[in-house]
Design a protein that fits this description.
With 199 residues, this protein is an alpha+beta fold. The protein is 38% helix and 9% strand. Helix 3 crosses helix 8. It is globular. The two termini are 29 Å apart.
Length: 199
């Protein structure tokens, strides 16, 4: 399985925004965006005015890095989105939000999406009382997400997404609906991503 093993803070500095790749550290004064505001590189990679292609590329890279998806898998998501009638960009973001690792992160059961992936790979997550060990598993409306074995612990305050619900008594999360565009909080301009792949 391919994955990025380099420094995560460098990715945030390259995009110029907080991607929350390191969990709680991103919310403190130790965050790389606060401490070192220049882009990575020997000379801070002086920022020139980007071209249209450059803007599209940066937006695509930002979306990939936020959700922890590599290029081939991201391209497959875009390909599926283009086959659906309606808004391609919205369907792309809905697919990324419905990934199981993102749902675990949104419910507050993990510090970051990378931590959520680790929990899923270790077999600690059930979907509809069946073990799932694939982080890219797409949840549907009505799916119930639970921990295997012991009761789950809320590790961080979730964003209180209206398309997800957490039942404290049963220690169970439920997908109430497919997220609408206003419910997706990530600072991504999906139109630029669609333009990038439609060249």
């Amino acid at each position: 399985m391919a994955r990025y093993t380099g420094p995560k803070c460098r990715l945030c500095r390259r995009e110029g925004v907080k991607l929350f790749l390191k969990g709680a550290r991103c919310e403190t004064q130790k965050c790389a965006i606060i401490r070192r505001q220049q882009a990575p590189g020997q000379h801070g990679n002086p920022r020139r005015r980007p071209s249209g292609y450059g803007l599209q590329l940066r937006e695509k890279q930002k979306a990939k890095r936020i959700y922890g998806v590599l290029e081939k898998q991201f391209r497959n998501y875009v390909r599926k989105a283009t086959k659906v009638r309606g808004k391609t960009g919205l369907f792309l973001l809905q697919q990324l939000e419905r990934r199981l690792d993102n749902v675990i992160y949104r419910l507050g059961l993990s510090f970051s999406r990378a931590h959520a992936k680790q929990l899923i790979r270790q077999g600690k997550i059930n979907v509809n009382d069946r073990g799932v060990n694939i982080p890219s598993y797409l949840v549907s409306t009505g799916d119930k997400v639970t921990f295997t074995g012991k009761d789950s612990i809320i590790l961080r305050e979730s964003g209180k997404e209206s398309w997800l619900a957490w039942n404290k008594k049963k220690s169970m999360g439920e997908v109430l609906s497919i997220p609408k565009r206003e419910e997706i909080q990530e600072p991504i301009d999906e139109k630029l991503i669609v333009e990038f792949y439609s060249r």
